[in-house]
Structure formats: C-alpha cells, structure tokens
Amino acid sequence: MSRYSHSQRMNLGTVFNFRDLDKNVQVHLKNVYSTLSVGMIISCVGAYLFQINSFLQSITTSLVVLSFILSLGSSLFIYFTQHSRETLHSRLGAFFLFCFSTGIGFGPLLQALSVISPDTIPTALLGTALIFVSFTLTALFTRKRYYIYLGAGLMSAISLLTTFSFMNLFIRSPAIYNAELYIGLAIFCAFVIFDTQLIVEKRRNGDTDFVWHTLDLFIDFVEIFRHLLIILSSKRRRDRDDD
C-alpha cells in the first residue's frame, strides 16, 4: 500500500514537473494566466450585465457595434503601446476593457441560447475549459517546441476559412457552414498550443509583454467557446427536429 502511494506521488510529481521551464518563464506564465483569469471574470460580468439589463437588450444592434469598436480599439492600443512599467496599468486597463466588451458582445447570443437551450451554455463553457487546459498542458509538457512552426499554416487556414465564410454569405450552404464550424474549432485548438509555446519562446528571448500574450490566449479561449456554443446548439436543434 505504501509502495503504491509512493509511486502515485512520484507519478503526479512527474506529470506536473515544470523544471524544464526556467524561473523567468514560470513567473511570466503565472502573470499571463492570472491576468487571463481576471479577464475571464470581467468578460462574464459583461455578459451577465446584458442578461439582467433591459436597456442594454433594447439597443442590441448598437451595443454589438460598440462592443466591436471597443474591442478593436483596446487591442490596437495594447499592440501599439510599448510594454513598460509606465504603461503597464493603462495596457492592463485596455485588456480588461477588451474582455468586458467581448462579454457584452456575447450577450445577445447567450440570451438567445438561455431561452432555446439553456444547458448548452454551461456544457460549452466546461468543454472549452477542458480543451483549453488540455492543449495548454500539451504545449507546456512538450519539450521540443516544434509547434511554433504551425504559425504560417494556421494563419493560412484562417485566411481560407474567412474566404469561405464570405463566399457562404451568398451561397448559403449548410454543409459549408458546418464545415466552417468544425474546422474553425480545430484551428483555434491548435492556436492554443501554438500561442502557448510561442509565449514560452518569446519569454526565453527576453519578451516580458504578458499583457499581449494574455490577449492572444483570451482570443483563443473565446473562439473555442463560441464555436462550441454554436455546434452544440445546432446539434440540440437537429435532435429536437428529429424527435
């Protein structure tokens, strides 16, 4: 029994062994994921405010446009503002504004699903969390950083997907639409691995901009969640139609 317990402790210690990451990288990742956690909470607050505020619901179209403008503006501010101690608070504020506006922008979709299929939302959120954690650990436990070479392929895939999405506005093919959803989900799952390994390599090369790195991962999480929401809700709708 004691031998089994000792073996179990050793296995767990091996699984969660990050000693191949140097101290600076570990501290940087703590900054990234702690900031990401706060951003997730702020995003949830934004989505919740939309659910309980009738005024926000009455200006849905304007709110979605405003959310897009705020998200774009805050991300551009983070990108064009150099990371330093002097700009840290303003860049963090811009990131949290990005998270809040993203949550607000998700409000109409979440409200519709809360009426049509309310159990889809927690299922998609749990699935997104599991996917994100799994692919993050895969990236961190893989000592050879060959996933960083996926960047060009992933960007090409995003460009092709965007092109097909635009074309489907006129074709209106359900098959293309469903393919876009599943391919898009796979692409952003791969982006989690790519961005995680890229963050590690950038920090090893002296890049300490954890705000921008957090923004990359936040976008990955949000896109996985969005794709899962639509996929699950579509599946539930088809199941109801079949019944």
Automatic annotation (TrEMBL):
First-listed, main subcellular location of the protein, grouped into a coarse class: membrane
Compartments where found: Membrane
UniProt keyword terms in alphabetical order: Membrane, Transmembrane, Transmembrane helix
Transmembrane segments: 32-50, 56-80, 92-114, 120-140, 147-169, 175-194
CDD domains per record: BI-1
Membrane association type: Multi-pass membrane protein
GO CC terms, sorted: mitochondrial membrane
One Gene Ontology molecular-function label: enzyme binding
A GO BP annotation: negative regulation of apoptotic signaling pathway
Pfam families for this protein: Bax1-I (PF01027)
Family (UniProt): Belongs to the BI1 family.
PANTHER family attached to this UniProt entry: BAX INHIBITOR 1, BAX INHIBITOR-RELATED
Protein name: Bax inhibitor 1
Species this chain originates from: Schistosoma mattheei
